[in-house]
Amino acid sequence: MAELETPSFKELEREGWSAKAGDYDSFAGDITKGAVEPLLDAAGVRRGMEVLDVACGPGYVVAAAAERGAQAIGIDFSASMVAEARRRFPGVEFREGDAENLAFDSASFDAVLCAFGLLHIADPDKAIAEAFRVLRPGGRYAFSVWMGPDRHGYFSLVTEVMQAHAKLDVGLPPAPPMFRFSDPGECRSALGRAGFRSVAVSELPLVWRVGSAASVLEFLKRSSVRLGMTLDRQTAEARERVYRAVLVGAERFKKPNGYDVAWPAVLAVAEKP
After folding, report:
1. Which domain holds residue 174?
2. What is the pLDDT of residues 230-260, one digit of tens each?
3. Residue 1 belongs to a domain
4. Is the pLDDT of residue 1 over 70?
């Protein structure tokens, strides 16, 4: 019998987001919506501009750009995400597409945006180079990524729990470092190598407010793809230990009126000469 080919990181990411597309709005969407207007402002999106949103997910950024009067297109490598975006925003254009090989001519757009997509791309440098290629001279590229566990409440908790209760070496394919672009210096270096100038990096102090520790656990179960890959490869006993530890650990976020989870992001913007 022929050996089964091991799926690539890219294939597993596509599979994961396709499976979780319907849950995105109830979990990650509550947080990522907070970055939409800052991204549009950073890229200077306004009426009449041609805008591309890469890794568009359920379409929040594209819809907001269209509300400003821009001609906006969203692409995502997950057919389920594209279907979800079309369902939510039927008057906006969405297509399946590959961030590492954009199906557009060079110098086609005034702005290219990517809200938290670089975390899920197998070759983010190629995606940045493609954004540069399809931008017109003077156009801006803006992206957002999460800060690392040292600053980020949720990732601090789950990193701590996974290290204590899970087997981390579970045979997953090679993947780029998840928090590479949490470092502002790395953002500047990567954008500079691609040819961009006038790079600016700032912090978005986002907070996720929920009613219970159970919501934090549900996020892990239903809206975490990278961590989900590792959890899927644990024994049932190990997964239960992780789940119990997350519920206990989430109590650190408790406030008088609920739970506030620090969820800060990095926003980087640069211009094509």
Report:
1. 9-271
2. 999 999 999 999 999 999 999 999 999 999 9
3. no
4. no
| Ordered DSSP codes for 169-188 | -S-PPP---TTGGGSHHHHH
Number of domains in the chain: 1
Residue with tokens 């090989």: 101
Cβ within 8 Å of residue 136, ≥6 positions away: 107, 108, 109, 110, 272
- Half-sphere exposure of 132 toward its Cβ, with a 13 Å CA cutoff? 18
- C-alpha span between 26 and 215 (Å, rounded): 10
Residues 6+ apart with CB under 8 A from 247: 213, 214, 216, 217
Strand order in 135-146's β-sheet? 93-96, 71-76, 50-54, 109-115, 135-146, 265-271, 197-204
C-alpha 136: how far from chain center: 24
